[in-house]
What we know:
There is one protein chain. This protein is an alpha/beta fold and 131 residues long. The protein has two domains: 1-64, 2,3-Dihydroxybiphenyl 1,2-Dioxygenase, domain 1 (Roll), CATH 3.10.180.10; 73-131, 2,3-Dihydroxybiphenyl 1,2-Dioxygenase, domain 1 (Roll), CATH 3.10.180.10. The protein is 23% helix and 34% strand. It is built from three helices and seven strands. It has helices at 15-24, 54-60, 81-93, and strands at 7-12, 38-42, 48-53, 74-77, 97-105, 109-115, 121-127. The strands form two sheets. It has a four-stranded mixed sheet, with helices on one face. Strands 1-3-2 form a three-stranded mixed sheet. It is globular.
Amino acid sequence: MTPRLDLVGTVASDMARTLDFYRRLGLDIPAGAETEPHVEVTLPTGLRLAWDTEEVMRAMDPHWTRSQGGGASLAFRCDSPAEVDRYYAELTEAGYTGHLKPWDAPWGQRYAVLLDPDATPVDLFAPLPTP
């Protein structure tokens, strides 16, 4: 068997704020999860997304430090260009950081980028209608 991507894990400096961000994107995260040191959810595609607190990381490795920009991002496909705009507006109005306002990309998608509470880029995209 070849390895297959099963889980994307990130570290949350503020679990409650991080989970609020992803709940606003529609992820089904159980109530009360914000008090846990490790949280994971299975997405409709079967891929799992997980968050650990910084304390968990330091318990595993006392010398752990947060990495500085590995270049990875999470990309969420939306149902329509209007949904890209709506989620971007809702999240920025809720105080989350917008990184790139919605725009029509030359590759045929409505695209926007937000930053989650730990500055992980979160892309929102949807196919543009074909002319």
